[in-house]
User: Fold this.
Amino acid sequence: MKNNNANKNAPALARGLKVLELLAEEESELSLKSIAERLSIPTPSLWRILGVLRENGYLLFDEDKKTYRLGFKFLYLGNIFMSRMGFRSQARGYLKKLMELTGETAELSARVKDQLILIEQVEGPEAVRLFSRIGSAYPYFHATAPGKVYLAHMTGEKLKRVMDRMGLPRITEHTIADFQSLEKELKAVRKNGYAFDKQEMRMGVVRISAPVYDKRGKVVACLGVAAPSFRITARNRENIGKWSKKLAQKLSKELQAKNGADWLV
Assistant:
């Protein structure tokens, strides 16, 4: 969620972040005029912001086309971020095993502060398969399987506070949009040891996730699959949930033995 107070206290920084987000989402480079029009930032202010971002390596400027694109600084920061997730390499073997068992794309996501981020995946072999960019975020916890895993591990009082803050927007016609129904769903997650997202974030997409725990019993990641809804039946959904849970438990034991992943939470 956006922090309006932070935007008011540091407007230039907030605008700079909007510029970076816009350029990250765009496939093509953008001119100063295009950026100003899309973000409604006054040209003089935008010129100063772009200058600072260029000087620090966050943007590259094409002198011939007079356009901007993201700089290589993000590769450097991304490599640092990913290198600190030492358990990604440990998890990859489990992801590959889950992909082989299910034939679907296996995913590893983790909560970094208040965001749920996809940090690793192994694509399935099917011609029609799901792919997401590493580093992409799940915007709503209540509408996706990994998010439900984290919510299921919150106490009733904390869960209520969190959902009051985040809200329960209806993303698709299948999204759970009331607190009582969500509580019922989370109770099933705790009982089964894995969560489902049945086209709740995106039509045609099903996700199934199980929790990975650290040595203190806290959830530090979610292991599971993402698949087209037409390939997921009630029966294989349960099987995938059980396979995800079993492999997540094995990864948890390995992490606990190596005292890993504490920095995430």
